Amino acid sequence: MRFGRAWVGAGLCLALASAAVLVVIPLAVLIKTSWVEGRGHLADVISSPGFGSAVAHSFELSAAATLLAVPVGVAIALALRDPRLPGRAFWRVAVILPVLVPDFVLSYSWLMAYGRAGLTSELFGFAWTHIQGPIGVSVIVAANAVPLVYLIIAVGLATRAEPITERAARASGAGPATVLWTIMLPLLAPAIATAAVLAFVLSMGAFAIPQVVGAPAGFGTITTRIYADLALGSNPEGFVEAIMLALLLVVVTLIVVTLAETVLGGRLQTGRTAARDTDWPTSSRITRVIVTTAMALYLMITSGLPLLALLSAAITRAIGVPSTPDNWTTDNFLAVLTPRTGYALGRSLLLALAAASVLIVLGSLAAALGRIRGGRILSVLITLTLVLPGSTLAVGFLIGYGRWLADTVVIILIAYLAKLWALAHRPMSAAVDRLPSASLHAARVSGAGLPTALATVVVPLLRPALLAAWGLCFLTALHEVTMSSLLYGPGSETLAVVVLNSAELGNVGATAALSVLVTAIVVLPGAALWVLSRPTAHRPRA
Amino acid sequence: MSSLLELRDLSIRYGSTQVLNSLNLTVRDGEIVALLGPSGSGKSTLLNAVAGFLPIYSGEILLAGRNVATPRSTEPPERRDIAFVFQDYGLWPHLTALDTVAYPLRRRGVRLGPARDQARGILERLGIGALADRKPAQLSGGEQQRVGLARAMAREAAVYLFDEPTAHLDASLRDVFLTELAARRRESGAAAIYATHDAAEALGLADRVALLVAGQVIQDGSPQQLYSEPISVEAARLTGPASLLCGIEGPLLVRPDWVRLGGDRTGVVVDVWFRGSYTDYVLRTADGELLLRTPAPPVHERDEEVSWSLDRCWPMPEPR
């Protein structure tokens, strides 16, 4: 697409200025401060016992979660590929649904379901005593990463392993298992590698799950240590340690991503459009029954039971009493519905609304600029934010803009914009790439000026992507807690922070009630969005 | 000749859409049958059902006398004695041409070394031995087509299925394939079904042509028979250019090469098309518009009155 030169210049300036404010300055400030402040304290910080164990725990957690999440995600993606699987459309949505549940709510729910005095303990006398340790944290982080792995593999399947490749192998005499081994897995290797890298990076930056599940039992990671250093301590050494850890997180993340990029080359991108489903008798009836049962069990264990436990705790009078109708109450909800909660909810909604709305502009801008030289640098910068841990960004913003903006919602908004830019950029740039190349030209030669052409041709064509990007940003901003918990002050706490604080105070009923509320306000718009977007997702059968 | 493949009352549905409708077709040993039909007539569906990619709704499929598909049971593709040449080649992005062709051999239990040797031999016969180490992304469309054909040949199947190959089989490829088919026939019997919407390709390639319209075979016979004795106007149009004259003798089908310039009848030139080795005239006559083909450069102009005569014609059967 060709715009006027002035338009391109203005757009590029705006985008680069945003990138400077959102990414470059906080990182630069972080590096400078660590150099200035850190020199004297470095040895002390590194030799402190908590530092080493936090780093070790982060690595163990990321490795374990990746090793767990990748096979599960791949298996689900392959299983859900069968068009004859009963309820396939439902399973496809159900697998991704846990994404709509904030991760701190998820971890809290797991504790209530499987922990001491949890739901399974009450029902079957089974309590998982080690849930509050490395294994428990890894399992929950893995369960949280499975939807992402599934999505990447599913896209890989649709774009690289078209049904025809499988058919060709079957017609060449290969049985289903041989096809999986000789064709599907080799073809999926790049997607699997991408998924593994992202799962590792996300686990590395995961904060809420280790904070809620691991920290109380002494399993601290880099992210929870940053939180402890900044939120609890006020000594300079803690501050230096937080900066060092934040930088370390970036360095590790960048090394992993760069290594993967080098080893895998350009194979991490998928350029082709997805193939259509075709009827394909891949499985016997027995296989389908087994797959369906396994899916139901998996979803029951990872989200069904935990959310049920959460709900049960929210409506039950006190901990320890059985959750029977006699003991049901709305007291927990009434107790948490304070003005403070109301303000926090309002703030969260406003922040998410503002962030999502600004982000689709920034995302579209970056997508439109993606083909010129300055624009490509921009997309690299934006993609970087995808793997920048929230904790690191938050520390950068605190040092960079804290003087003026500390304890305000503005600094939280800036942090959301920085962290979620990539999330808005991805779907937008994919949609821009798919735009028929002549559509804008055709509008221009038909007599439309640039603004008219954009409004009448480009925006309608991009509408599904714009909606998707907006919804994705809104939901993610709404349950962001890593950065919010580091940046909030009196009068700028978000609902997620209120829940986290309540959990830290050990207030079970209140936390459960708050969690139900925060999940509902995320799930309900999500469900509405899904229903609204269904007509566009409809595809005719082949 | 025994029948190698038999489709009996075959019906296939996608949801509520009926794609094949009680279709019957027999392919005998050694035959190349062209499946000729417009797009959407069910050609690909038929091949996919024979290959075992689709469950069937009713009827049955017999391959070498063995029942491979009924509405209740479907033999998977790898256990059917078939090979498939895909429209979009269906090559595997991660395998070289050599390993692609060796793939069916490996599935039969041939060791890697001998499988590659055999695969190299097949690639050389098809004139692409030099491309053995390339992956699909490094091959042109025509080259990918040859690799796809080589893979099918390596399968050494009883029935070869060609799903409307985008790059048509040129004469040299056709000869290699026919030699292959003859060799396979001597061993165990072999045949091919070639789906296409191109009448010239179908008539030139096949021993027998089956005309597929709206999920049914409307006519089935030798290429010459389909060309000169079509059972309906639709069948005539699908097998090549034709004019319909409505004179006192009833509807007469006339192929453009059955008409000559000069003679006792007259008409006015409506259009002239110079096509290189021949020239097409469209004439307006008393009995209707007529297409006339001569192996000479244009000698008449528009609106000129010319005389013509018929070498032969085909009285159309009354439409049912």
Briefly characterize the structure.
Chain A is mainly alpha-helical and 542 residues long. In chain A, 77% of the residues lie in helices and 0% in strands. Chain A folds into two domains: 1-28 and 335-535, MetI-like (MetI-like fold), CATH 1.10.3720.10; 40-321, Orthogonal Bundle (MetI-like fold).
The greatest inter-chain interface is formed by: A-B, 25 and 28 residues
Query: CATH superfamily of the largest domain in chain B, called what?
Result: P-loop containing nucleotide triphosphate hydrolases
Give the helix tally of chain B: 8
Query: Total number of helical segments of chain A?
Result: 22
What is CATH's topology name of the largest domain in chain B?
Rossmann fold
In CATH, the architecture of the largest domain in chain A is: Orthogonal Bundle
Q: What is the percent of helical residues of chain A?
A: over 70%
Low-confidence residue ranges of chain B: none
Backbone shape of chain A: globular
CATH class of the largest domain in chain A: Mainly Alpha
> Order of helices and strands of chain B, N to C?
EEEHEEEHHHEHEHEEHHEEEEEEE
CATH class of the largest domain in chain B: Alpha Beta
Q: Fill in the CATH topology of the largest domain in chain A.
A: MetI-like fold
> What profile does the largest beta sheet of chain A have?
none
Total strands of chain B: 17
Structural class by sheet pairing and helices of chain A: mainly alpha
Structure commentary:
The complex is a heterodimer of chains A (542) and B (320). With 542 residues, chain A is mainly α. Chain A has two domains: 1-28 and 335-535, MetI-like (MetI-like fold); 40-321, MetI-like fold. Chain A is 77% helix and 0% strand. Chain A contains 22 helices and no strands. The longest helix of chain A has 43 residues, at 5-47. Mean pLDDT of chain A is 81; it is low at 266-279 and 536-542. With 320 residues, chain B is α+β, with helices and mostly antiparallel strands. Chain B folds into two domains: 3-228, 3-Layer(aba) Sandwich (Rossmann fold); 242-315, Nucleic acid-binding proteins (OB fold (Dihydrolipoamide Acetyltransferase, E2P)). In chain B, the strands form four sheets. Chain B has a six-stranded mixed beta sheet, sandwiched between helices. Chain B has a four-stranded antiparallel beta sheet with strand order 2-1-4-5, covered by helices on one side. Chain B has a four-stranded antiparallel beta sheet with strand order 15-14-13-16, with no helix packed on it. In chain B, helix 2 (97-107) packs across helix 3, helix 2 runs parallel beside helix 4 and helix 3 crosses helix 4. The longest helix of chain B has 17 residues, at 171-187. Chain B is globular. In chain B, 39% of the residues are buried. The interface between A and B is medium-sized, with 25 and 28 residues.
